[in-house]
Amino acid sequence: MISLKKVTKYYGRLKTLSEVDLELKAGYGYALLGPNGSGKTTLIKSILGLVIPDSGSIEVCNEPIKQQSQYRKHIGYMPQVGQYPAGLRMAQLFEMIRGLRPDAKNIDEELIETLGLRPLMDKRMYSLSGGTRQKVSAALAFLFCPVILILDEPTAGLDPVAVEILKEKIIREKKSGKLLIVTSHILSDLEEIATHMVYLFEGSVRYNSPVEEMKKETGEKTFAKSIATLIRHQDLQFNELVKP
Amino acid sequence: MKWVVTFCLLFLAVMTLHAKSTVQTTDALLRELKKAKAGDTIIIKSGHYKPGNIIIDKPMTLIGEGLPVLDGENKIEIITVLAKDVTIIGLKLINTGVSSMNDFAAIKANTAHRLKVRDNVLVNSFFGIHISNTIGAEIIHNTIYHDQVAEESSIGNGIHLWKSAQAKIENNRVSGHRDGIYFEFVTSSAVKNNYIEKNLRYGLHFMFSHENQYIENKFINNGAGVAVMYTHSIKMIKNIFSQNWGSSSYGMLLKDISDSEVRENQFLNNTVGIHMEGSSRIKFFKNIFQGNGYALRLQASCDNNDFKQNNFQQNTFDVTTNGVTVLNNITGNYWDRYEGYDLNKDGVGDTGYRPVSLYSMIVERVPASILLWRSFMVFLLDRAEKNFPAVIPENLIDNKPSMKPYDLFKKSN
Amino acid sequence: MTQMLKYVLQDVIRARFVLFYWLFIVAVTTLLFQLDSDPAKVVVSLLNVILLVVPLVCIVFTTIHFFNSYEFILLLMAQPIARKTVFLSQYIGVASSLALAFLAGVGLPAIAFGGAAKVLSILGIGLFITFTFVSLGFLAASLSRDKAKAIGIALLFWIYFALIYDGLILWVVYAFNDYPLEIPTLILTSLNPLDLGRIVMLLSIDVSALMGYTGAFFKEFFGNLTGEIFSLAMLSVWVLWPLWVALHRFKHNDL
C-alpha cells in the first residue's frame, strides 16, 4: 500500500534518511521505532508530503506522491504535537476540516463522542490542554475513515482512560484491514497494535520483520522484552527506548 | 443722455465735412476706395467681400457694420496702411496669404501714426496686425485667432510691432499665432488687459523695447510662455502667467532685463515661473508663485534684484540657481515650506528660510534625477541639507520669512 | 479553494490587525483632508503614506501572518489539498484583506470629503503596492524557517525599496552625469515598484514637477498608451515574480 524506494533526505549536511526501502501493506500494524533523531518523524512526514525527499520515490496506493495531494485522502494523520490555529473554536476546526473535503462520504465521529470532546466544542483551541489537543488530533485522524492511519506518538500526553479508548479504536481499525503506522516510546502500547517492527537508526532501516518472527528470534514472550534482547544481540543502540 | 446726443450731432457735423459712403458689394467698395479723399469714411455693410489687397494711402476711416467679411482667399495681404490717421473698425478679416518672403498681414501698417484698429475680428491670418515705424497706434478690442494647426514657422505673430512708440494695445484676444504680441524696438507703449492664449511660441515676446508697461494681461498656455529680452525700464503689473507647460516653457523668461518692476503678477502652474539670466535691478514685489515646477530660476548672472512680499506656494522647487554666489536680495517673502517659528508673534519667522533645496541643485545638474521627486530618499537628503548646509548656497536665504501668505488677491484664471 | 479562502479570511479578520490598519488609514486620510481643503495636496501627502507605510505594513504583516498560520498550514497539508492551493489562498486572503482595508481606508474619507475622483490614481497604485509587498512578504517568509529572521528579511526588503535603492539611483545618475541618462533612469526606476508607482502617480497629480526637459521625456513616455501598458506590465511583474518565487519555494520546502 505504501512503498518507499531508496528515500534519502538531507537537512543541510545531516543525512536524516538514508536510502530507506520499505513496503507497508494493508491489514498490518507497523511499529516504527528508533532513538530521537533517527528519522521516524521525517519518514512519516515524507509519506505525508510535508517533507520532500532529496532522492528516491514514495508510492501510496501504487501512485507516486511527488507534488501530489489527492492521495492524502487515504491517510489519517495524528501528529506528535497537534498544532492548531489558536483562535479557532473546536467546532469550527472540525467544521473546517470537513468543509475541505465536502465529497467525503464516510464520516467517523466515534472518537469525538468516546473521548468526550463533544462538550468542549465551544472552547477555543488555545484554551485546551495538551491532552485534549491530542484527543482532537486523534479524532481528526479517524474522521474520514482513511485506509491508512499514521499515528505519531498517539498515546503521549493522554490520560489512561483515553489511551485505552484510542487503543481499542486502533485495534478495531486494523482488524478491518487498514494499514497502521505507529511510533511510540511506550512499548507496551505497541504490543497490542503492532504486527511488524521497523527499527530506524541514523536514517536507515536496521530491522524490519513481523513481531512473531522477532519474538521467535529472541525467544522472548513480550514485545518489549524481545526488543530489548534484540538490541543487545544485534547491537542496536536502543538507549532511548530501554531506560534503566 | 443729453450730452451724448449733443456729442453725436457734433460728431456727425464734423463727419459731414468729409464724404461718407456706404458700400454693400466688393465692386462698390473698390470704387469708393479709389474715389475717397483724405478724411473720408467708408461704411461697409455686412457681407462677404473679396476686394484683393486694399492699400490705404490717405487718412480715412473704414467701418464695418454687422461684421462684414473681407476675404484674402489665402493669397494676399488684406489691408495695407501707408498713411497717418487711419481708423479701421468692426471688420472681419479672414484668410490672408502665407508667404515666407512677405510678412502678409490682415492689417499691415507702415509709418501710420495714430492708426486706430478697433473691434475687428482677424481669423486665420498669417500676421494679424503688423505695424512698423508708427507712433501712437491704438489696437483695441480685437479678436485675433488662427484655428488651423500650423507649424511655428508657417505662421506669423498676432500683434507685431516694430520700431514704434506710444502704442496702446488693450482688450485684445490673441490665440493660435506664433507669438501673441511681438515687440521689437518699441518704446513707451502700454499693453493692457489682453488675453493671450495658446500661441505656438510666446504669448509675449519683446526685445529692445524700453519703458513699456504691461498691465493686467493674461498669458495662458502659450507654447513657451513669455520671453522678454535686452530691455530696461519696463513695468509688469497684475499680469497672469499660467499653464505654460513644456520642456522649455516659462511663465516668463527674462534675459538681460534691467531697472524694471514686476509686481502683483501671478505665476500659476508653469514649468518655470520665472527664469532669469543677466538681469539686474528688478523689483519683484507681491507676486504669487503657485503650482509651478520651478517658481524661480535665478541664474548666477543676475544681480541686485529684490524679491519682497511674494507668495511661494505649492511649487515643486521654490528657487534654483546654478552658482554659489548670490547677489540678489530675497527678503520677507512667504514660503509655504517654511517650518520655522515665530516666538515674538510679529508675523516674521525667527529663523531664516533657504528656498534652494539640495535636490533642486541635483536636478539642475542631472535632470534625469527628477524621477526621484517625492521619494523618501530625497526627503531625507533635503532635511539633512537644510539643517547642515554644505552644498546649497550659504547666503541664499530669506532672513525674514513671513509666517502667513500675503493677502495679495484671489486666485483667478 | 473558496472554502480555503474563507478560512484564511476568517483567520486574518480574527487577528484584528487589519482592522487597526484600516482605522489608521482612515485616521490619516481624514486628518489630511481636514488639514487641507485642496484635494490635490491631500493626494500628495497621501502619497508619502502610501510609499512608506503601506509597503511596511503589508510586508511585515504578511511575514508574521505566514508564521502565525504555520499550524494552520500544517493541518491543511495532512489533508488532500495541493500546496499551491494552500499557498494561493493564503496569498489571496492576506492580500485582499489588506487591499480592502486600504481601499476603504482611503476611499471612504475621500468620498466623505468629496475628493473621490482625485484619489482614484492613488487607490490604483496603492493596490499594486499592496499586492507587491504581500508577495514580497511571502517571499521573505519562504526564505527562512525562522520567524525573526524572516521578519528581518522583510524589513530589509522594505528599506531597500523605500530608501537604499533610490540612493543607489541617485549615485548612479550623479556618477554618469555626462551620459544621456533618460532611458537608464527609466529602466532603473522601473526595477523598483515604489519608484514606478510614485512616478505614475506623480504624473497624474503633480505634472509641473516633472516638466523640465527630462520631465517632458518621461511625461511623454508614461503619458501615452505604450507607457501606460509598460508601467502596468511592470507593476504586474512586481506583483507576480516574488509571488512566483515564493510559491515555488513553498512547494519545495519542508514543513
In the CATH scheme, the class of chain A would be: Alpha Beta
Largest sheet, spatial ordering of strands of chain A: 6-7-8-3-9-10
The biggest beta sheet of chain B is recorded as: 25 strands, parallel
How would you sum up the global shape of chain A? globular
% residues in beta strands of chain A: 25-35%
> Quick check: average pLDDT of chain A?
86
- On the 0 to 100 scale, the average pLDDT of chain B is 90
Backbone structural class of chain A: alpha/beta
Tally of distinct domains of chain A: 1
In short:
The complex is a heterotrimer of chains A (about 240), B (about 425) and C (about 260). With about 240 residues, chain A is of the alpha/beta class.
List the keywords.
heterotrimer, A: 244 residues, alpha/beta, Rossmann fold, six-stranded mixed beta sheet, four-stranded antiparallel beta sheet, 8 helices, globular, C: 255 residues, mainly alpha, 11 helices, 84% helix
Tell me what the structure shows.
The complex is a heterotrimer of chains A (244), B (413) and C (255). Chain A is built from 8 helices and 10 strands. By secondary structure, chain A is α/β, with parallel strands linked by helices. In chain A, strands 6-7-8-3-9-10 form a 6-stranded mixed beta sheet. Chain A has a 4-stranded antiparallel beta sheet with strand order 2-1-4-5, covered by helices on one side. In chain B, the strands form 2 sheets. Chain B has a 25-stranded parallel beta sheet that branches. The model of chain B has no long low-confidence stretch (mean pLDDT 90). In chain C, helix 5 runs antiparallel to helix 6, helix 5 crosses helix 11 and helix 6 crosses helix 7. Chain C is mostly helical. Chain C has one domain. Chain C contains 11 helices and no strands. The interface between B and C is large, with 34 and 39 residues.
Question: How is the topology of this model organized?
Answer:
The complex is a heterotrimer of chains A (244), B (413) and C (255).
Chain A: E1 2-11, E2 14-24, E3 29-33, H1 40-48, E4 55-60, E5 63-64, E6 75-78, H2 90-100, H3 110-114, H4 130-142, E7 148-152, H5 160-175, E8 179-183, H6 187-193, E9 196-201, E10 204-210, H7 211-218, H8 223-234
Parallel strand pairs in A: 3-8, 3-9, 6-7, 7-8
Antiparallel strand pairs in A: 1-2, 1-4, 4-5, 9-10
Helix pairs in contact in A: 7-8
Chain B: H1 2-17, E1 20-23, H2 26-35, E2 41-44, E3 48-49, E4 54-56, E5 61-64, E6 69-71, E7 79-81, E8 87-89, E9 92-94, E10 105-110, E11 116-118, E12 121-123, E13 127-132, E14 138-140, E15 143-145, E16 159-165, E17 168-170, E18 173-175, E19 181-187, E20 190-192, E21 195-197, E22 204-207, E23 213-215, E24 218-220, E25 225-232, E26 235-237, E27 240-242, E28 250-263, E29 266-268, E30 272-277, E31 280-285, E32 288-290, E33 294-298, E34 303-308, E35 311-313, E36 317-320, E37 327-331, E38 334-335, H3 358-365, H4 376-387
Parallel strand pairs in B: 1-2, 2-5, 3-6, 4-7, 5-8, 6-9, 7-10, 8-11, 9-12, 10-13, 11-14, 12-15, 13-16, 14-17, 15-18, 16-19, 17-20, 18-21, 19-22, 20-23, 21-24, 22-25, 23-26, 24-27, 25-28, 26-28, 27-29, 28-30, 28-31, 29-32, 30-33, 31-34, 32-35, 33-36, 34-37, 35-38
Chain C: H1 2-14, H2 17-35, H3 39-68, H4 70-77, H5 83-112, H6 120-143, H7 147-175, H8 182-190, H9 193-205, H10 213-223, H11 225-252
Helix pairs in contact in C: 1-5, 2-3, 2-5, 3-5, 3-6, 3-7, 3-9, 5-6, 5-11, 6-7, 6-9, 6-11, 9-11, 10-11
